C-alpha cells in the first residue's frame, strides 16, 4: 500500500432538501443534540483540519452555530435541487483549492459512523484507489475517501451521478468494513425515532 501524504479534506454533505422529513431534518434533535451535529462532531474528532460543511440556503442552525464557534467551514450549494452530485462537486473543488491529497466524503444525516471507520478510510486510500464502505444493498458508497487523482472527476459530476457512480465504475476500491447499523440514516421522522431508540439501547 502506498501511504498518502498531505492534508486531508473532510466534507460533510448537508444540502439535501429533506422533503420526506418535512424540512429542517439536520436540526431535529437526537439524543440531546441536532442530528447533523453527530456527524460533524465525529469529523472534527478525526483531527484532519477544519471540516467543510456543504449546505444549501438557509444553512441549518447547527451549521451556523459550528461556524460561529470556528469549528467548520461552510460552503454554500446554490442549487441543491441539482442533486447530491452538486455538493460532491463543490467538496472536490475545495479539496483541489486546498491542495489536499485526500477527500473524505460524509453524509450529515448518518449519526452513528465511527471515528475508527473514517480513519480506516483515510489510511487505506491510495493513488488511483478510493476507499469506501459497503451498504446493505451491496452498493459501494459514502462515507468514502478519494485520492487527489479523482478530484477532477468528482468536480465534474452533474445530475444524479454521485460519488457512488464513480465507485461503481472504479476498477480498484478498498472496502472498509463497518459495524452493524453504523450506516443508518434518517429520511423521515419515523426513521429518526428508530435511531433514537437505538441510541438509548447503546
Which descriptors would you attach to this protein?
single chain, 202 residues, 7-stranded mixed β-sheet, 7 helices, 9 strands
Write up this protein.
The chain is globular, with a radius of gyration of 16 Å. 33% of the residues lie in helices and 20% in strands. It is α/β, with parallel strands linked by helices and 202 residues long. A hairpin with a 5-residue loop joins strand 7 and strand 8. The model has no long low-confidence stretch (mean pLDDT 91). The chain has helices at residues 35-45, 61-68, 84-97, 115-124, 151-155, 163-169, 189-200, and strands spanning 8-14, 29-30, 33-34, 52-55, 73-76, 102-107, 131-134, 140-147, 174-176.
Order of strands, main sheet, comes to: 5-4-1-6-8-7-9
Report the average pLDDT across residues: 91
Q: Give the strand content.
A: 15-25%
- Could you give the distance between the termini? 35 Å
Helical residue percent?
25-40%
> Could you give the order of the helices and strands?
EEEHEHEHEHEEHHEH
Compute the number of helices. 7
Model regions low in confidence, pLDDT < 50 over at least 5 residues: none
Number of strands: 9
Biggest pleated sheet: 7 strands, mixed
| Alpha-carbon Rg, integer | 16 Å
Structural class: alpha/beta
